[in-house]
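Suppose you are handed a protein chain with no further information: no name, no annotation, nothing but its sequence. What can you learn? This example shows the usual starting point.
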Amino acid sequence: MKKTISIKGGPPVEIDLDDLALHEAIALEDETGWTMKEMAQELQAQRMKAIAALVYLILKFRLHEDLTYEDLITGRYPISLRKDIVIDDGEPEPAEGGGEEPVPSGDAAEASPSP
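A reasonable first move is to predict its three-dimensional structure. Written in structure tokens, the prediction is:
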């Protein structure tokens, strides 16, 4: 399960829960008691502690912030879900405007007569 996350306007960071480093997986299990599989299930269910764990992994190990998981869940390191976290699941956004057909490319586009 890959996610790209930006926290507090910082750079986007990609994390793949199916391919965590050993020390990250151990930290996840130590802090939450969850295996990586359980973490993925908790994220699918949109559990707030799972989102906090994901943010913890990124801040601690990818952005090298000096904090603990407890800092996040107790508010010592405040995070606004609406303002501070942008998550891209890699899934395309639904098209606006009622689902217009995509413009063909290549030979098909050239062969189409103009109105």
